[in-house]
Design brief:
There is one protein chain. By secondary structure, the protein is α/β, with parallel strands linked by helices. It has one domain: NAD(P)-binding Rossmann-like Domain (Rossmann fold, 3-Layer(aba) Sandwich). Helix content is about 35%, strand content about 15%. The protein has ten helices and seven strands. The protein has a seven-stranded parallel β-sheet with strand order 3-2-1-4-5-6-7, with helices on both faces. Helix 1 links the parallel strand 1 and strand 2. Helix 2 runs parallel beside helix 3 and helix 3 packs parallel to helix 4. The longest helix has 22 residues. The protein binds D-galactaro-1,5-lactone. The site of D-galactaro-1,5-lactone has 6 residues, from loops.
């Protein structure tokens, strides 16, 4: 029988694409889910799940929702590049509310971070978990803040957290960049299950990508939770390898189109932020 978490699991961002996929998968596994989002949940609720509409900016609502939960899967907030004023409430203040709730409940946070925390590294670079943050916009910056919030709450309060630096998790491999960053839905579901059930994790960063031979990323904390991706974008290489944008900035950096948004630099940014010597 599938292992089930001892305490209910709170999922923020339940109505988003990844949230809905997780609700289905975790619901089928028999987990007790408490779901929330700022917009209504569009699917039938699985047995054992409840949905409450809430804004991440409402700290009291988040505290109430987290009561009795052992894990918070934090997939809510702004999930694409937006002006700073739009990112601020959900992703900065909201993240704080999630961590305060986790501190009160002694819950673990599994955070949907993003490749846009490091999006200004060039595609030729192979990155490990401890590479420098090089956010490619306000959205990526908010995710880097989220990862650092996890670091703070672990060091100061012992709140465990796993930061999933997700590449592109979508049903299909849709271009050349996705050949490197693709995370299949099935691999993401297995990743979230291991991140929740692993007995003791401290604070971790895990690259959220399937087993893609063109991948940009290397070492991370996956061994601690016993996760290995099983899928790969490789079967789509011949179909997608030439599917590029034609925008040199987009094609140079790992963050792709996000790096190119409002890009106004004349020269490419240096490969290393602090070159040795
Ligand atoms: C992300 O972080 C976004 O949430 C997702 O919508 C994609 O744009 C993805 O990155 C990507 O880089 O393709």
């Amino acid at each position: 029988m599938a292992e089930i978490p001892a305490r209910p699991v709170l999922l923020t961002g339940a109505s988003g694409a990844l949230g809905r996929m997780l609700v289905k998968g975790l619901g089928e596994a028999g987990w007790t889910l408490r779901l929330t989002d700022i917009v209504p949940f569009p699917d039938p609720l699985p047995r054992g799940a409840s949905f409450t509409r809430a804004d991440l900016v409402d700290g009291m609502a988040i505290l109430r929702l987290a009561e009795g939960c052992g894990t918070i899967l934090h997939f809510g907030g702004v999930s694409v590049e937006r002006p700073f004023s739009e990112v601020l409430g959900p992703n900065i203040q909201g993240l704080y509310h999630v961590y305060e709730a986790a501190r009160r409940e002694r819950a673990r946070v599994v955070f949907a971070s993003s490749n846009h925390t490091i999006g200004f590294h060039e595609r030729s670079e192979k990155l490990d978990q401890d590479c420098q943050f090089r956010p490619d916009g306000y959205y990526g910056l908010s995710k880097a803040y989220g990862e650092l919030m996890g670091r703070l709450y672990w060091d100061k309060h012992g709140v465990e957290n796993i930061n999933l630096r997700i590449g592109g998790s979508r049903p299909k491999v849709d271009n050349a960049r996705t050949l490197a960053i693709w995370l299949s839905y099935a691999d993401l579901l297995r990743l979230v299950i291991r991140a929740t059930l692993a007995p003791s994790v401290g604070t971790l960063v895990i690259w959220g990508a399937s087993n893609n031979s063109r991948g940009f990323w290397g070492r991370d904390g996956r061994a601690v939770i016993g996760w290995q991706p099983q899928d790969s974008a490789d079967p789509f290489i011949s179909e997608q390898a030439r599917n590029v944008s034609g925008n040199p900035v987009e094609e140079r950096y790992q963050g792709g189109p996000y790096a190119a948004i409002e890009y106004s630099r004349r020269e490419p940014s240096p490969k290393a932020l602090f070159p040795a010597g």
